[in-house]
Every structure is written in structure tokens, then in C-alpha cells.
Amino acid sequence: MIAFSSFADYFIGLAIHNSENQKVRKRFLLLSIFLNLGLLGFFKYFNFFIESFASAFSFFGTSPNISSLYIILPVGISFYTFQTLSYTIDIYRRHLEPTNKIIDFLAFVSFFPQLVAGPIERAKNLLPQFEKKRIFSYQQAKSGSLKIVWGLFKKVVIADNCAVYVNDIFNNHETLPGSVLFLGLAYFAIQIYCDFSGYSDIAIGTARLFGFNLMRNFAYPYFARDMAEHWRKWHISLSTWFKDYLYIPLGGSRGGKWMIIRNTIIIFTVSGFWHGADWTYIIWGFVNGLYFLPLILTGIHRNHMGPIAEGKIFPSFKVFLLIVSTFVLKTFTYVFFRAENIGQSWTYMKGMFDWSLFTIPDYSYLTHWGLIGLMLTLEWLQRDKECPLYLDHTPKWVRYSAYYATILAVIFLQSSEEIPFIYFQF
Questions:
Q1: Which of 291, 318, 389, 409 keeps 20 to 30 A from 48, CA to CA?
Q2: Cα–Cα distance between 28 and 30 in angstroms, integer?
Q3: Residue 68 confidence (pLDDT)
């Protein structure tokens, strides 16, 4: 699969570049889009469309005899499909010169640190790095190693331990009070952030050991002051991909507020569908798009572009409320992302939004928040750095104490259960 996609886009890219006929160039681009999205659609969404089609008929009392297929989802297809597709689109737009070195292109598509779960790299950033001579850099290897350690800490100490609570609460949601159900969503919010950003840190750090610089994928999104800022800091490689290759071609922000609203709803709904072939993901994306409506209508969706509480240890009370409210709004959407189906998400919300939401949860559900609080505190104090372990401005004993404490935590505080990376399923 990855070989077919890579060879197809390599030769299509050369054909687009070598032709001066705009119609011919457009046909080759459409061929690339058809091949990439066609393969992605078949392997990831074929059964979804078949089952939805059958469900639509059963609504009218008819039960068509349609069988789904046992399709194995190729590893990383959602990521490398977008990566190769952006290559041909950039060549078509004349933003990029194609490479004549097929080995370099194949290495760009299948670069092992970020192949299965991103970041989704652009050819203009990563491809030229394969053409340079590899020279070991101590500083680059050091920063990469620290990102790996921090990524491991977030994954095996924070995310995997949160997963134990999340699985227990979602599996027993019909019998638990609303306060515990909300706590389960909060745990999942932390789990998915630490799981996915942890993977991104490990991927970026591993690439740096080999002298490659991958794009940053997370920039402390839970410190965002509104949902627009949150999405500028969350899964940055995918958010910018949709902006460049879907939002702007749809008209972007050029047609007034209603066009901005339409385009925003479209890209978030498509983003939800990208995450998985289920109505829960589509609703999750749609609800995130709806969160943008008041920001766009009031014209404040670009208000928070700068640093948060710059030069201060603590945020102002107003900024603190904005951060908390944004986190809570985001947390509510995760009921659709985590639930197995629409029915479970509905019963989960019904159970959460009653008077039991205001009860005190059992102490056993609160024991992991000490480590979560420590992680968030370190990230807040180092929010102007790419990684909380970048402590070159501190005394040597502080640096090495932090390094060894993190490593020991990874060894001794990791979850007893092996939890796969969440985004491997996409």
C-alpha cells in the first residue's frame, strides 16, 4: 500500500512539474487525489458507508441484504496519504520543486519515527533534509533525547494510568454518579493529550537523533484561552493541513463571516471523519466546529495569538477562567470521541447531567491527579519552551535532578497495563 501510494505520487509529481499544459497538470493532480482518497476511502470507510446505507433503508422498514467486508486497515494510511497528497498539490501550485531522487522520496514518505501517527510532514520541510549530509550534533541529540524522555513520561506515567480510570468509568457509566462521569471525561482529556503529544515528542526526538527536524505538533493546547487558540496548538500538522488544502480552497476567510462559519464547520466535520469511520467522530468534529460560531460572529477568533501571561508566573484571574472554561468545553466533546457508539454517548451524557454531578466523587477516582497536576505545572512554568525538560537556564543540580526524576518515574510509575497509542487506530 505505502509502496503503491509513494511510487504513484512520485511519478505524478514529476508529470505535473514537466507539463506546461494546465489541463494536463490538473488531470494528473485529480488522478493523485482520486488514487489517494480512493484508497483511503475503501480501506477506512467502505464498511461505514455500507452499514449506513443499510441503516437508512431499515429506517423505512426495509432490510437490504448487504454484506460488509473484512478489511484490514493498513498501518498509518491516514497519515502517509495526506503526506503524499500534499506533495502533489504543492507541485501543482508551484510551491515545490519535485525531487528526482526516488530513494529520497520513498524515505520521506516512510520515515519511521512519524510514519504511523505523525506529525504529518510537508515535503518542503522534510524532503530537503534527506539530501543533506548527516552530521552528528550534540545539542540536537540532547534536545531530542529530552523530548523522548518527556514523551515517555506523558505516555506511560500519565496517559496509561489515566486509561485505567477511563476504561473503568466508561465500562460502568450506567451505575456511576455524574461527578465520576465528568471525572472520566477529564481523565480522557488528559489521556488523549498525553498519549498523542507523547508519541509526537518521541517521534520528533527520535528524528533529531538522526539529524532531522520535524514540525512541532502540540504547543500546550490545554492552556488555550478559547477554542480557536486551542486548535492552533493541538495536532498542528493536521490542523494546518486542513487549513492549507481544504479551508483556503473553499474560500477561507475571504467571503465574510458566514463563509468563514461554513468553511469552519466543513473542515471540522471532515476532520472528525478523518479520525474514524463512525458517526461519533463526525458529531465530535461538528460540535468542535460549532464552538467557533460565537468567536467568529463576535470577531474574536484571532484575539489570542500571542503568549499566555508572558513574563508572569501566574495568569490573571480572567485568563485563568478562560483557560478553565475552554478545557471544560473541550472535555464535553470527548464523550463522542471515546464512546463506542451514539447510544453510549447519549446515556453517558444523561447520567452526567443530573444532580449527582455536584456530588463529591469517591476518593479512589482522584488518586492520579497529583501526578497530572505536577505535569501541568511543569508545562505551565516552561510554556515558552518546546519541552519542559529544556532547563539550560537553571543550575546544573536542578537540571539533572529533573532528568533523573523523570526517568525514574517512567521506570517505576508506569501503568501495569499495556495501552496501545490511541492514534495508531487512525
A1: 291
A2: 5
A3: 66
Distance of CA 270 to the CA centre of its chain: 14
Instruction: Give the DSSP per-residue string, 133-177.
Output: PP---HHHHHHHHHHHHHHHIIIIIIIHHHHHHHHHHHHTGGGS-
**Segment 108-137, tens digit of pLDDT:** 999 999 988 889 999 999 999 998 888 899
CA–CA gap between residue 221 and residue 376 (Å, rounded)? 11
Through-space distance between the first and last CA atoms of the chain, rounded to whole angstroms: 16
Q: How far apart are CA 107 and CA 131, in angstroms?
A: 11
Q: Distance between CA atoms of 370 and 226, rounded to whole angstroms?
A: 26
Query: Looking at per-residue confidence, does 73 or 313 come out higher?
Result: 313
pLDDT at 261 > cutoff 60: yes
- Does the pTM exceed 0.90? yes
DSSP string, 283-308: HHHHHHHHTTHHHHHTT-TTS--S-S
Closest residue by Cα to residue 85 from 230, 244, 231: 244
Residue type, position 194, single letter: C
The separation between CA 98 and the C-alpha centre of its own chain, rounded to angstroms, equals 28
Q: Using alpha carbons, list the distances in angstroms from residue 78 to 36, 60, 67, 258.
A: 10, 34, 24, 30
**Catalytic option among 275, 301, 304, 368:** 275
Return the number of other C-beta atoms located less than 10 Å from residue 328's C-beta.
13
DSSP codes joined into one string, 51-98: HHHHHHHHHTT---------PPPPTTHHHHHHHHHHHHHHHHTTS-PP
**Considering the chain, what is the average pLDDT of its residues?**
90
- 180-202 pLDDT, tens digit each: 999 999 999 999 999 999 999 99
The residues, any chain, with a CB within 8 Å of residue 190's CB and separated by 6 or more, are: 158, 159, 162, 372
Q: How far is CA 192 from each of CA 120, 183, 185, rounded to the nearest angstrom? A: 18, 14, 10
Residue 280, phi then psi, degrees to nearest 5: -60, -40
Buried-exposed string 37-50: b where 16+ CB fall within 10 A, e elsewhere: eebbeebbbebbee
| Half-sphere CA count of 200, side-chain side, radius 13 A | 26
Amino acid at position 263, single letter: N
Q: How many CB atoms lie within 10 A of CB 134?
A: 10
Instruction: Give the burial string for 73-88 (b: 16+ CB within 10 Å, else e).
Output: ebebbbbbbbbbbbbb
Task: Name the grid cell of 186.
Answer: 477529564
| Rounded Cα–Cα distance for residues 304 and 315 (Å) | 14
Respond yes or no: is residue 393 known to be catalytic.
Answer: no
